[in-house]
Amino acid sequence: MTTPTPPAKTGSPATAPVLEIRDLSVEFATDSGTVRAVDHVDLTVEKGGILGLVGESGSGKSVTALCILGLIGSRRAKITSGEVRFQGEDLLTKTERQMRDVRGGRIGLVSQNALSALDPSFRIGDQLIEVIRLHQHVDKATAARIALDSLDIVALPDAARRMRSYPHELSGGQRQRVVIAIALACRPQLLIADEPTTALDATVQQQILDLLLDINKNLGTSMLMVTHDFGVVAHMCTTVAVMRKGRIVEQGEAGEIISFPRQPYTQGLMNAVPRLRLSETERAVPRSQRRLPVFVEESAFAERADYATV
Ligand SMILES: Nc1ncnc2c1ncn2[C@@H]1O[C@H](COP(=O)(O)OP(=O)(O)OP(=O)(O)O)[C@@H](O)[C@H]1O
Ligand SMILES: [Mg+2]
């Protein structure tokens, strides 16, 4: 299947992409035979852009993301073809030692189960400082300053005090901000976020996506945003690649693909985005007959409620 490469972003035709994946294939040896999880994939992340890699569960998104970081490759998993060019260098030719500098240094990862990325037995600040000192030759006091800056970037309230907190003392949304701060601590040129909001409720999801968008705008960090949700693509991505059964079936400018999807599969993913609007039945009930919630004067939620009168 031919898969058009996305055009360069308007206004930056001379800027080289930060990441170019060409002809990437990955196979797993399983008890029931060989599985090709990634099948001749081409992807491009423009400098300063956000590429949404979207597809249903099992389509190969995470395996593709892990290849970029050199985290695939064992007796049972094999990269059978391709190149992963990051800032012009093919990461697939690097040694494990060289990749340790790239991971967490030049490329940050917010992994699919991000909350387990924090060690419950260490303070937030110590976990940040450890990552910073692993990649930058700075003393502990300087690393602590960089750590605090990173917590400020992710807008963690009361960051100085939070440096001394353990993960269980933070809410899910706050922990996710810390995970993003760790991924950003060494100011990577590329951030890979694999379903970064999966475990969070809808309001917090939106806040985390807005935070990533701010980071992209303010720091210029390029991003690969892995998601199964076209709502996320519409909200924040400049380009999109649609993945199905290990292959890219469609890719290009996000706005263009959302307006004119060429593949029924893409249309299906877009139709799966929930719409938080009133159903037709609810619309049919006159506004005057809809039951309104009752608020007592002291309601803690009054200021956030549409119908509150206090
Ligand atoms: N270690 C492994 N051994 C065998 N098969 C694997 C392994 N890891 C992944 N796969 C297979 O590769 C395919 C792609 O998996 P991947 O985790 O990339 O999917 P995904 O698109 O990220 O899905 P999700 O949205 O559920 O996270 C799946 O069929 C999966 O079963
Ligand atoms: Mg995945």
From TrEMBL:
<dbReference type="InterPro" id="IPR003593">
    <property type="entry name" value="AAA+_ATPase"/>
</dbReference>
<dbReference type="InterPro" id="IPR050388">
    <property type="entry name" value="ABC_Ni/Peptide_Import"/>
</dbReference>
<keyword id="KW-0472">Membrane</keyword>
<dbReference type="Pfam" id="PF00005">
    <property type="entry name" value="ABC_tran"/>
</dbReference>
<protein>
    <submittedName>
        <fullName>ABC transporter ATP-binding protein</fullName>
    </submittedName>
</protein>
<keyword id="KW-1003">Cell membrane</keyword>
<dbReference type="InterPro" id="IPR003439">
    <property type="entry name" value="ABC_transporter-like_ATP-bd"/>
</dbReference>
<dbReference type="InterPro" id="IPR013563">
    <property type="entry name" value="Oligopep_ABC_C"/>
</dbReference>
<feature type="domain" description="ABC transporter">
    <location>
        <begin position="21"/>
        <end position="270"/>
    </location>
</feature>
<keyword id="KW-0067">ATP-binding</keyword>
<dbReference type="InterPro" id="IPR017871">
    <property type="entry name" value="ABC_transporter-like_CS"/>
</dbReference>
<dbReference type="GO" id="GO:0005524">
    <property type="term" value="F:ATP binding"/>
</dbReference>
<comment type="similarity">
    <text>Belongs to the ABC transporter superfamily.</text>
</comment>
<dbReference type="Pfam" id="PF08352">
    <property type="entry name" value="oligo_HPY"/>
</dbReference>
<keyword id="KW-0813">Transport</keyword>
<keyword id="KW-0547">Nucleotide-binding</keyword>
<dbReference type="InterPro" id="IPR027417">
    <property type="entry name" value="P-loop_NTPase"/>
</dbReference>
